[in-house]
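Section 3.1: Structural characterization of target chains.
Under the original work plan, the team committed to producing a structural model for every single-chain target entering the pipeline before any wet-lab resources were allocated. The record below documents one such target. The sequence was received from the expression subgroup and is listed exactly as submitted; it comprises 159 residues.
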Amino acid sequence: MTEMTTTPDGDNEPQVSTRKATRRGGGDPAMRGRTTIADGVVEKIAGLAARDVVGVHAMGSGLARTFGAVRDRVPGGSGSKSVTRGVKAEVGEVQTALDLEIVVDYGVSIGDVARAVRENVIASVERMTGLEVVEVNIAVSDVKLPEEEEEEPELPRIQ
């Protein structure tokens, strides 16, 4: 900031002021409030990240997938619920822990798939939320065999 100051001989000379401009509210704007992230948000991110891994056939146990398929077909049913199927998150202020239940394709290395899922989930959740992922527990509940048909229950017909 530059100010004009009059000297004793009457000349106007520019003076550099050392005063800083003040901000209203004071402090860093990023520190003026609190951000909370719901468990469901982390579950969606993790569910999508896990499904992106080659070798993951589905998420959740057989029973959960069956009920989910029915729920997804019902008009007005929550389609977003299928994204979080097989994912449970516990979210704290700065950390989160995740439990995933997956079905792998037959023939893939379960260890490699689990490692890839863990890496992808951690990278996605930490990048999007800023939370530290302290653990990702993976339970492999089934193997999808090539000759198996998809488990889609027969829905009752509405007359």
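The mean pLDDT is 81.
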